[in-house]
Amino acid sequence: MGAQGSLADGLARSLARRSGLPVARAETHISWLLFCGPDAYKLKKPLKLTFLDFSTLALRQHFCEEELRLNRRLAPQLYLDVLPVTGPAEAPALGGTGPVIDHALHMRRFADDALWSTRLAQGRLTADDLTQLGERLSAFHGTAPRAAADGDHGQPADIAAATAKVLAPLLTWPHSAAQAQPLQAWLQAEEARLMPWWRRRLAEGFVREGHGDLHLGNVVQLPEGPTAFDCIEFDPALRWIDTLNDLAFLTMDLQVRGRSDLAFALLDGYLSHSGDWDGLTGLRYFEVYRALVRAMVAGLRQGQGGASADEPDYLGWALRHITPPAGGRGAPLLITHGLSGSGKSTWARALLQAAGAVRLRSDVERKRLFGLGPLDDSHAHGLDIYTAEATQRTFARLEDTARTLLQAGYPVIVDAAFLRRDQRERFAALAQALGSPWLILHCQAGPEELARRLAQRTATGQDPSEATAAVLKQQQGHAQGLDTDEARAAITVGECNAAGVAQVLQRWLEPH
Q1: How many Cα atoms are found within 13 Å in the side-chain-facing hemisphere of 116?
Q2: pLDDT tens-digit series, residues 152-197
Q3: Can you tell which superkingdom this protein's organism belongs to (predicted)?
Q4: Which of 70, 149, 185, 488 has the greatest number of CB atoms lying within 10 Å of its CB?
Q5: Where are the beta strands (DSSP E) in 283-424?
């Protein structure tokens, strides 16, 4: 068992005597964990491995303190303190007065079924949970320290080297070589394409001190909402990464488990809050890299006889993820059309999850142009963001961003009223230029329902739209209906439901 096992045993006995409560124990390859009532304690094993060094008392104290500091950024309610462990290993005490023999990280315990990996398996994760986490992670990344452009982290050559290091064993193992070879060719081509982009991302401050290990097992559902925890403390290079590389671990983890709907709900929350549409240029590469990491770890476990029977097929997913759409078509484009309150955003949210699409929302992008957040009240800030010039700028931004996203291979939904014909025509031209399947989603609702929805939206204050009854009346007066050609490219919908979503997807995405 070793000295550390003896220390963990002794501390468990001490905790049980002091509290009168049972103590549960768990072990990872680098830590011991003790659970006693509402508390949890983590002891780092005195190890020196290729990727970490906990071999001395001073190093274990340092990394306990680093773990506390780093995780308090996202989960301050879980990470409480670093406590000295004193006394002999056979009868140690937490925070005692004798000689310090080790250190323990003190945490608040949470329920086992609060982990998102468990909640996903139980079917208890919702799109709202993912959207909320996406917004939280965007805020976290937005305030995280930035890497220097000439510093040690985020250099393009290092990104490619990290991928090559993970890919190397997969190319040699008999069970993975056939799948890894085409991935190698794709990764090398992507690296050549992305090198200038990686340099620009670093220069513009998108390499930040993130989490580094953002998978479903490191997200927890707390009473106040979801949050990530247990970030990487032992290797700065693994957490000083592009913000989309950080997020990619979680979007990959959801997709490989068959929940692309939740992955795109997460992405929608993150991008709506951050506006980092440019990050999608390299997201697919980062997701494939994360899948390779998981495949390598699974392969190592298989070699040690510890493979899990329900391990996802990471390499198979990665191969499907890099395969271009059949027929050489461009990524599909959909725009909404309808009065305020007609259900455009409800439909857009349902469709983005079902199709694995990215949504651009005019209400959000209009506010972003003026330095406002999605829920900020423009009137309270003394701004008039609804002038003809502001509308022109908004639609120009929507068109430019949609082009970037379509060229990156993502289906795009532009969520706007599109009441003017010239606004619709510029997106029809964009779809034609890129060879993108094209659909207008014409949303309708009765006058009473429109009024009810606008009143409800205003009362809750939880929607980016600032449309009022007066705005609705103005829209009704100047809206330009769909002409004959547009009507052929449109599908008319009412109340959003699963059958309607399936019908829209068939019309939009399937070849005709």
Answers
A1: 26
A2: 999 999 999 999 999 999 999 998 999 999 999 999 999 999 999 9
A3: Bacteria
A4: 70
A5: 333-337, 358-361, 412-415
Residues 6+ apart with CB under 8 A from 191: 159, 160, 163, 285
Measured CA distances, 493 to 338, 348, 363, 420, 486 (Å)? 10, 12, 21, 19, 15
Domains, the chain, in order of start with CATH, read 2-109 (3.30.200), 116-322 (3.90.1200.10), 326-509 (3.40.50.300)
pLDDT tens digits for range 442-477:
999 999 999 999 999 888 888 999 998 999 999 999
Rounded Cα distance, 410 and 278, in Å = 12
Q: Which residue has the tokens 């191969």?
A: 319
Exposure b/e, 350-371, CB count within 10 A at least 16 = b: bbbbbbbbbbbbbbbbbbbeee
> Which of 410, 409, 412, 431 is closest to 489 using CA atoms?
431
Which residue, chain included where needed, has tokens 């919702």?
Answer: 126
Query: φ and ψ at 443, to 5 degrees?
Result: -95, 135
H-helix or E-strand spanning residue 33: strand 31-36
DSSP state of 387: S
Say what angle helices 344-355 and 498-509 make with each other, to 10 degrees. 70
Q: Are 103 and 83 in contact (CB under 8 A)?
A: yes
Pairwise CA distance, residues 134 & 126, whole Å: 13
Under 8 Å between Cβ of 174 and 108: no
Instruction: List, in sequence order, every residue forming a beta bridge with 23; answer none if it has no partner.
Output: 36
Nearest to 329 by CA among 212, 474, 434, 190: 434
Q: Which of 343, 508, 510 is nearest to 431 (CA)?
A: 508
DSSP 267-325: HHHHHHHH--GGGHHHHHHHHHHHHHHHHHHHHHHHHTT---TT---HHHHHHHHHPPP
DSSP 47: -
Residue type, 174: P
Residues in the chain: 512
Name the residue type at position 427: F
Do the beta carbons of residue 218 and residue 238 sit within 8 Å?
no
Q: Which residues pair with 210 in a beta bridge?
A: none
What is the pLDDT at residue 458? 87
Q: Which neighbouring-strand residues pair with 227?
A: 220
